[in-house]
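Example 3.
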Amino acid sequence: MKGYNFAYLDEQTKRMIRRALLKAVAIPGHQVPFGSREMPLPYGWGTGGIQVTASVLGRNDTLKVIDQGADDTTNAVSIRHFFARTSGVRTTTHTAEATVIQTRHRIPEEMLLENQIIVYQVPQPEPLYRLEPSRVETKRMHALSDYGLMHVKLYEDIARLGQISISYDYPVMVNDRYLMSPSPIPAFDNPKMNMMPALQLFGAGREKRIYAIPPWTDVRSLDFDDHPFRPINAHQACGLCGAIDSYKDEVITDDRGGRMFVCSDTDHCERRRGAA
Amino acid sequence: MSVPLLRTEGLTKSFTLHLRGGLRLPVLGGIDLSVEAGQCIVLSGPSGAGKSTLLRTLYGNYRADGGKILVQHQGRIVDIAGADPRTILAVRHSTIGYVSQFLRVVPRVPALDIVAEALIGRGPSPGEAREQAASMLLSLNIPRRLHGIPPATFSGGEQQRINLARGFIAGHPILLLDEPTASLDADNRAVVVRMIQDAKASGTAIVAICHDVDVRDQIADRLFEVAPYQEAA
Amino acid sequence: MNDDPILAARGLTLSFGVIPALLNVDMELYLGEILAIVGESGSGKTTLLNVLSGLLRPQSGTVTYRDPDGVTHDVHGMPAPMLRTLQRSDWGFVHQDPRRSLRMNVSAGGNVGERLMAQGARHYGDIRAQALDWLEQVEIDADRIDDLPRTFSGGMLQRLQIARTLVTHPRLVFMDEPTGGLDVSVQARLLDLIRSLVARLGVAVVLVTHDIAVARLLGHRIAVMQRGRIVETGLTDQVLDDPRHPYTQLLVSSVLQA
């Protein structure tokens, strides 16, 4: 597309973001500030993820973009077209064919491999955001590995509700050192992050932070010994493909209370139906 | 046994009242006192002569200006006059006990616990300590119904008996008693005299201030005269 | 009792602009003893406490701490993470205003359990059991464990703060006017609690207070401060009953007799 650099961002910006990415990969789970640029869509629509994708995309890459697991929602389609037009790279909806996957709020069901990069869109990178209003203080807590406050929150949940109530954006401990927000993926997806063969990159455009988990890194969801982490999922099978162990969306089908559960990961569901 | 448990050499003490423009009051001058195990010395002398001051200085409550206060403490001799605070606390814990004229009331602590506390770190378990404290209080005619009450509302005599119980129960080798029978009736006076005599019999060295002549005659082996001190001009 | 002090300071000097807050202050504290630091406003006692606990850096002088292994550390020379760890585990700080250290939107149990969790405790049942035990020790009703501190009275908040601080069995505790601002009857209860807990746990305490009666009740030793200097120090009953320094005599004679 005329008038724009490959994948929209200029090379200097890409260089700046790549430096941030290198630092992030070197310190798994640690938030690295970066100079977030003006993008052709407002904050809250994935500008962080887009900037990271733009910086790592190469001519030979194949890009997949999903939003809540689906390739066909408006935002996923828009972002995919955006990159197609500004870089000319191949795009796909098939997880196994992609080399770069940008995602909002889900990890694909299919296991990701060493040649793949997954880029998460992050609204709020600070896992202690709701517990400690001061950024100065949270920076100090990360620096000194002082995370008692987060465990207190989990304790409070169990004391008040009998169980930990966090269902998405469930805090994790990365490489046994940094407390990290995995972005608003469902808690169900957290185990996929542990020892993932692919590179995981996180971009928060509005908050101007980048962080990363290198391949094969220890990622553990916080819990107590006597209240271990349990991923939550609907127990119904997918109404389209019959899968029991994929993450499901609940779809209201009529105005009389009719509903069905379908796989959130559209590609996964299609493949299962294709194979059936 | 002729080794004194407590001995002073040339003990002097004066007070400097800075709020009175630095007025200096010499009270004790060159006191040489000696007390052996099983002995009771009663300090005599007119009111204001410095008997209380001497007693408090022996305990380390007042600071000596000169001279020595030598105490047999756990097999060695300690000079209270020059000792650091931790040493004095250690000596007070295991060697010297002091029964003041008035009970200093600690808010909220029941009479029984005030006495039992004196046994902490001396061997008995908390349960045993409270039992011993209870029988000590009973022997001093403090009935059981008062044991669980903080003594702030007790009569002067009752408070003093609690004070005495606390002082005697720990079994210190040296006891300093300031008017032990002052606010007591005849019966309780007799009880205290017996306690002092029992303590002497078990080897306790006692220095006491006692204005009651009867009691004094029953407990004192010697009188030690404390005369009002006049410094050479 | 070991012969070496657990905490020692030499030549502490600190001025706020032209105002001298500390002038060449020395002190020592031994395990199992309570040192009361008394003085009026502006004496420097709170500044001294803050310097001793590492919260404020002196302009000259050193503060040294002897850890459980017997190794001596320079409090203001040690790396920030190490000091922070110390403050979370081996040390405790009881503030005059309990709201400064308590989390008001976290339950009583969560407040007490936080230091345990910060140290790596990961068994919910154990943490809760320890919290219950400590609430009992500070005489807070067990069924308040899930209540928020905003429903507690001043005295209860202070007792909760004490539980929260002592739960990790620190060897050294700094206390800044722990009974300040509380009703007299509440003070008595709190002082009694502090007295027995400290005696039972063998904790070393630096206690700052302007209240001579509190110093007399709790302190083994006392240091009297005036305008940045320690003017007199020694055995508590000795300094208070036989004061030598003119300022100490003034202070003692000013105490109202109830």
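The helical segments of chain A are 11-26, 47-56, 74-87, 135-143, 148-161, 190-193, 266-275. The first strand of chain A starts at residue 32 and ends at 33.
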